Amino acid sequence: MDTAFFVAWIEEIAHVIADQRDHLTKLDAAIGDADHGANLDRGFSAAREALASADPPPATPGDVLTLTGTTLIRKVGGASGPLYGSAFRQMGKTLGDAPEVTPAALAMALEAGLAVVQRLGAAEEGDKTMVDALAPAIRTLTAALEDTPADGSYGPVLEDAARAAAEGAHATIPLLARKGRASYLGPRSIGHEDPGAASTALILAALSTTAAA
Ligand code: ADP
Ligand code: MG
Ligand code: MG
């Protein structure tokens, strides 16, 4: 996966987030303040534009993710902006200046991104946050890579990871929120999918779509 692949990933995220903006807003209306769709649409649109207009253009996958993260921090407020922004920046930093990224390196970068989210937000799995989608996706990705020959196609592996993220997001429905705005609702947070877990599933789905293109 090269620089163009990572630009295409961010463009695909911007596309699916814009497409699902109202759905994310509806999820956040139920257990938050109804801004998650607008927040992420604003952030990823800005990231797509920043990548297109950067001079010089991003030279490496790491540059792409770092610029994306910086833009998210600048443009998205609330809880999700700093969390997603820092995660993308950490992924960029972890990839360093490598011109090509292997699936194993991508898994390590996602792992580093998750670690930052958990350091900043202190959420464990089961707290009904984006962590509930990201953590199982990374576990699935890492396990699937162990079974994939080095020259094998990584498309199906990313598909498995996206599915794990979607299942993780769906599995937040019966959970009680213990972090973020939804936690103020206590037991009334039960019965709704967490918006951040849903958007994380979209981000992983966009990765799989980009690999399949
Ligand atoms: P805000 O809640 O400030 O309006 P958003 O609506 O954009 O921000 O994002 C809400 C999402 O952020 C939640 O659905 C949840 O997934 C995620 N989130 C909130 N707090 C935390 C946390 N401490 N750790 C991980 N994720 C969190
Ligand atoms: Mg919100
Ligand atoms: Mg808000």
Automatic annotation (TrEMBL):
<dbReference type="InterPro" id="IPR012737">
    <property type="entry name" value="DhaK_L_YcgS"/>
</dbReference>
<dbReference type="InterPro" id="IPR050861">
    <property type="entry name" value="Dihydroxyacetone_Kinase"/>
</dbReference>
<feature type="domain" description="DhaL">
    <location>
        <begin position="4"/>
        <end position="209"/>
    </location>
</feature>
<dbReference type="GO" id="GO:0019563">
    <property type="term" value="P:glycerol catabolic process"/>
</dbReference>
<keyword id="KW-0808">Transferase</keyword>
<dbReference type="GO" id="GO:0004371">
    <property type="term" value="F:glycerone kinase activity"/>
</dbReference>
<protein>
    <submittedName>
        <fullName>Dihydroxyacetone kinase-like protein</fullName>
        <ecNumber>2.7.1.-</ecNumber>
    </submittedName>
</protein>
<dbReference type="InterPro" id="IPR004007">
    <property type="entry name" value="DhaL_dom"/>
</dbReference>
<keyword id="KW-0418">Kinase</keyword>
<dbReference type="InterPro" id="IPR036117">
    <property type="entry name" value="DhaL_dom_sf"/>
</dbReference>
<dbReference type="GO" id="GO:0005829">
    <property type="term" value="C:cytosol"/>
</dbReference>
<dbReference type="Pfam" id="PF02734">
    <property type="entry name" value="Dak2"/>
</dbReference>
